[in-house]
């Protein structure tokens, strides 16, 4: 199958070249309790940025049409993939059928007391829960985490401990950031994005673990990674 992604030669490349945020960064030895997050966006951004999967650079996706801004640091967990195992868990918990993974790294939003001025950075974070979100028929989970050692948020260990207003802001953002209003006058128009549940730390651990396994199953070798980027 060729060189595995954890081959020492692949690791040594990181000494000379900038690591690809999705494939080259380590999730961390303490995952899923503590994981690395790659931050794409911060709350002051009025433009939606996202990772260009081919180059590893951050690119402009689109300006935000309305005043909605992400209420937390937002990014993804490296070497994760929302595939069959994540989709199976979503179907099991939501009692829905025909769900598939969205084929992207697992999204994470990170709460912190401090203002972080820009993205394209990495952070050590503690997952405390998440949203079971469906984008059409695709599982698009959003893990909720707190910045490790944050003065205010480090004491939270489960999403149920957060103030309701914090969770509501996050939920409102993810339900509106794609700008898909539903018209009451058009019965054929259906809302595409839906949050079917808010779950706690243990389920977040399960989603993360499955996404890491999905990644290993999907990208079995360095050659496989290069074919997809």
Summary keywords:
229 residues, 5 helices, alpha+beta, globular, two-stranded antiparallel ribbon, 10 strands, 5-stranded mixed beta barrel, Inorganic Pyrophosphatase
Model description:
The protein has 229 residues and is α+β, with helices and mostly antiparallel strands. It has one domain: Inorganic pyrophosphatase (Inorganic Pyrophosphatase), CATH 3.90.80.10. The protein has helices spanning 8-16, 84-94, 164-176, 201-218, 222-228, and strands at residues 35-41, 47-51, 58-63, 73-76, 100-101, 107-111, 121-135, 138-139, 142-147, 193-200. The strands form two sheets. The protein has a five-stranded mixed barrel. Strands 2-3 form a two-stranded antiparallel sheet. Helix 2 (84-94) packs antiparallel against helix 4 (201-218). The chain is globular and about 45 Å long. Residues 186-190 have low confidence and may be disordered.
Write the layout of secondary structure elements.
Layout: H1 8-16, E1 35-41, E2 47-51, E3 58-63, E4 73-76, H2 84-94, E5 100-101, E6 107-111, E7 121-135, E8 138-139, E9 142-147, H3 164-176, E10 193-200, H4 201-218, H5 222-228
Helix pairs in contact: 2-4
């Amino acid at each position: 199958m060729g060189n595995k992604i954890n081959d020492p030669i692949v690791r040594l490349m990181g000494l000379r070249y900038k690591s690809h945020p999705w494939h080259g960064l380590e999730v961390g030895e303490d995952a899923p309790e503590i994981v690395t997050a790659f931050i794409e966006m911060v709350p002051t951004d009025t433009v939606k940025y996202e990772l260009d999967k081919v180059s590893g650079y951050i690119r402009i996706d689109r300006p935000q049409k309305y005043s909605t801004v992400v209420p937390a640091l937002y990014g993804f967990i490296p070497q994760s993939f929302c595939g069959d195992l994540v989709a199976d868990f979503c179907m099991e918990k939501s009692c829905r059928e025909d769900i598939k993974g969205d084929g992207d790294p697992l999204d994470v939003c990170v709460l912190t007391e401090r203002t972080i001025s820009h993205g394209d950075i990495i952070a050590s974070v503690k997952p405390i829960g998440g949203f079971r979100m469906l984008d059409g028929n695709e599982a698009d989970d959003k893990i909720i985490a707190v910045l490790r050692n944050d003065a205010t948020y480090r004491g939270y260990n489960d999403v149920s401990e957060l103030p309701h207003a914090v969770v509501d802001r996050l939920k409102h953002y993810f339900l509106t950031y794609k700008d898909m209003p539903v018209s009451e006058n058009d019965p054929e128009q259906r809302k595409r994005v839906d949050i079917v549940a808010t779950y706690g730390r243990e389920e977040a651990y399960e989603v993360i673990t499955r996404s890491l396994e999905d990644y290993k199953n999907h990208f079995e070798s360095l050659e496989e990674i290069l074919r997809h980027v």
